[in-house]
Design a protein that fits this description.
This protein is an alpha+beta fold. It has helices at residues 9-20, 32-42, 47-60, 64-69, 72-79, 85-102, 110-113, 121-132, 141-151, 162-173, 179-192, 210-213, 270-276, 339-347, 349-355, and strands spanning 230-241, 244-249, 260-266, 287-290, 295-297, 301-312, 325-328. Strands 1, 2, 3, 4, 5, 6 and 7 form a 7-stranded mixed β-sheet that branches. It binds iron/sulfur cluster. The site of iron/sulfur cluster has 14 residues, from helix 9 and helix 12.
Length: 357
């Protein structure tokens, strides 16, 4: 790779940033806890969607001690709707680790931050630079895009070697005098200027941009095809009896681990589901179909759902599955649950009334 030391790239970006930076709350602090929290919230999440969660979570848990002391159900309830619940679980784990093992203080260097659970290279570099002024470059999809276009890098960004190559280049570019500002600037530039549909006409780098000069803007960065989406079918049975509803907490290493849901079977076919779980058969006389949310799209999965509401008379006897439990219907509101179920409840007044007690 050619040397880029003293390249005007960094200076141009920082000048651009002074005029274009959005005023975001996590940019007004150098508290590593707040920066870390914002970075975890913003993983796989747009700023507009993440912002209300940032306010809610920093209000509910103003310090790492508050977060470490929180119970998981409360945290999941605040996290509800953000998706990727492994992030919330890791958040909790990391907060406890920082409190129990590090006396409540975040490590100050990239090489120590990266050892924390759920903290990857991007988040470690963000905290190290924003909170502690270390010259660690952030490298994410935005940075890949800018560097690939501007410097004409043809490496497939999904290839294992890409991170090393792009990080080495960013490491050469980041000024040691103001690394935090450079990282903020390159992230913002990727979001607002050199976006997937870039505004090259107003770009301050246009005169030296490889992709613009070579008319390759739409071909860079190079990205091989992502793996195909997995399609899954979930059959939900909301089984209610005598003011209670049957629920369980998802345990398996799968989507929505730790969240609560109604009786659920993964199968594309209702009859097959009943054959697999014979206890359902006598319940069907009390079942009505609900309007299901239909298709729910996650990053690599598509969930196609159907739902039946089963309201049983109080003297109806059946043997519930051992991993399910009865709770008061009104308690379901307090539990963390997937967005798919939130939508199901919102769309069905009869179900909403049952759960409101
Ligand atoms: S000229 Fe276009 S492609 Fe090149 S850096 Fe600017 S916005 Fe990106």
């Amino acid at each position: 790779m050619k040397k880029v030391t003293n390249h005007p790239f960094a200076e141009t970006l920082i000048t651009w940033y002074k005029d274009h930076a959005r005023d975001l709350p996590w940019r007004r602090t150098n508290d590593p806890y707040v920066i870390w929290l914002s970075e975890i919230i913003l993983q796989q999440t747009r700023i507009a969607q993440g912002l209300p969660y940032f306010y809610t979570l920093t209000e509910a848990f103003p310090t790492v001690y508050d977060l470490a002391a929180a119970d998981e159900t409360t945290l999941f309830r605040h996290w509800q709707g953000l998706g990727y619940y492994s992030r919330a679980r890791n958040l909790h784990k990391t907060a406890k680790h920082v409190v129990d093992m590090l006396d409540g203080k975040f490590p100050e260097t990239y090489s120590e931050l990266i050892k924390l659970p759920g903290v990857g290279p991007y988040t470690a570099a963000a905290i190290a630079s924003f909170a502690f002024g270390e010259a660690s470059p952030v490298v994410d999809g935005n940075v890949y895009r800018i560097l690939a276009r501007y410097f004409g890098i043809e490496t497939d960004i999904l290839h294992a070697s890409a991170r090393k190559e792009f990080t080495a280049l960013a490491q050469e570019l980041i000024p040691h005098t103001d690394p935090a500002r450079f990282n903020q600037a390159i992230m913002e530039f990727g979001s607002l200027q050199c976006s997937p549909s870039p505004d090259c006409g107003s770009c301050p780098l246009i005169s030296s941009c490889f992709a613009y000069r070579e008319e390759r803007v739409n071909q860079l960065p190079v990205k091989s095809k992502a793996k195909p989406q997995r399609i899954r079918h979930f059959q939900y049975f909301i089984i209610a009896q005598a003011g209670k509803v049957l629920v369980h907490q998802r345990q398996a290493k799968d989507i929505w681990q730790g969240l609560w849901e109604f009786f659920c079977v993964e199968s594309p076919d209702l009859q097959e589901t009943i054959n697999l779980h014979p206890f359902l058969s006598p319940l069907m006389g009390h079942a009505v179909a609900l309007q299901a949310p239909g298709v729910h799209v996650l990053s690599h999965q598509k969930i196609i759902s159907a739902a039946l509401l089963v309201q049983l008379p109080s003297d109806f006897k059946f043997e519930k599955p051992s991993d399910y439990q009865w709770i008061l219907s009104s308690e379901f509101e307090q539990l963390g649950k997937p967005v798919l179920l939130l939508n199901l409840i919102t769309d069905n007044i009869a179900l909403k009334e049952i759960l409101e007690g």
